[in-house]
Amino acid sequence: DGGITQSPKYLFRKEGQNVTLSCEQNLNHDAMYWYRQDPGQGLRLIYYSQIVNDFQKGDIAEGYSVSREKKESFPLTVTSAQKNPTAFYLCASSIKDPSNSPLHFGNGTRLTVT
Amino acid sequence: EDKVVQSPLSLVVHEGDTVTLNCSYEVTNFRSLLWYKQEKKAPTFLFMLTSSGIEKKSGRLSSILDKKELFSILNITATQTGDSAVYLCAVEAGGGSNYKLTFGKGTLLTVNP
């Protein structure tokens, strides 16, 4: 079955540590996205990538980094510079132009930093 | 900055009621508006709207877009407890190869038996 896999489902880290969230898709989609969801805030775009080896900052990129070395994979690193990292993180993918295809989402990773 | 506003933020109804969820937007270079349903984890796609006045329908759910007044509504008739979820509206905007989706905060719908 094609889809997007995010791992792990739950992640706990101590403040000051970097942590990397995994996102893999086998849908052959060109574009991939990372969103953060906080209660009452909806989804906010962190980073997106429309093609391998290229990515752009979203609305709240500070304290995060990404890479896109392979079409299937778009890992997100939450660095110690991110002031409020505890949140629910959603990865998504689409055919390059979302006007022709909606986003497909993974099941998310819930990150708790203490 | 692109903006998407959903209302109400939360709504409680009884099974069988009809609900209307609203989504208004202010974006540069509108391309499409999408509705998603989020129950616990991954949002699932409901509708994509690009043209004004054309209703999209799927069972008890329907949606329409007004590009002149910059809003969309999502209607759910004969609600069931399984319709309880957060409903997200997202607008795609941008030019050329530079486009992105901006999401609203969502409407939390609770359908009581």
How helical, in percent, are the residues of chain B?
under 10%
Main sheet makeup of chain B: 6 strands, mixed
Percent strand of chain B? over 45%
Radius of gyration of chain B: 14 Å
Number of helical runs of chain A?
0
Overall morphology of chain B: globular
Tally of individual helices of chain B? 0
Number of strands of chain B: 11
Compute the CA-based radius of gyration of chain A.
13 Å
DSSP, total strands of chain A: 11
Q: Helix and strand string of chain A, N-terminal first?
A: EEEEEEEEEEE
Oligomer: heterodimer
Structure characterization notes:
- The complex is a heterodimer of chains A (114) and B (113).
- In chain A, 0% of the residues lie in helices and 51% in strands.
- Chain A has strands at residues 4-7, 10-13, 19-25, 31-38, 42-51, 54-57, 64-66, 76-78, 87-94, 104-105, 109-113.
- In chain A, the strands form 2 sheets. In chain A, strands 2, 4, 5, 6, 9, 10 and 11 form a 7-stranded mixed β-sheet that branches. Chain A has a 4-stranded antiparallel β-sheet with strand order 1-3-8-7, with no helix packed on it.
- The N and C termini of chain A lie far apart (36 Å).
- The model of chain B has no long low-confidence stretch (mean pLDDT 93).
- Chain B starts with a strand and ends with a strand.
- In chain B, strands 2, 4, 5, 9, 10 and 11 form a 6-stranded mixed β-sheet that branches. In chain B, strands 1-3-8-7-6 form a 5-stranded antiparallel β-sheet, with no helix packed on it.
- In chain B, 34% of the residues are buried.
- Chain B has strands at residues 3-7, 10-14, 19-26, 30-38, 44-49, 56-58, 61-66, 71-76, 85-95, 98-103, 107-112.
- Chain B contains no helices and 11 strands.
- Chain A binds chain B through residues 4, 33, 35, 40-45, 48, 50, 56, 58-59, 90, 97-99, 102-108, and chain B through 4, 6, 9, 31-32, 34, 36, 41-45, 48, 50, 88, 90, 92, 97-106.
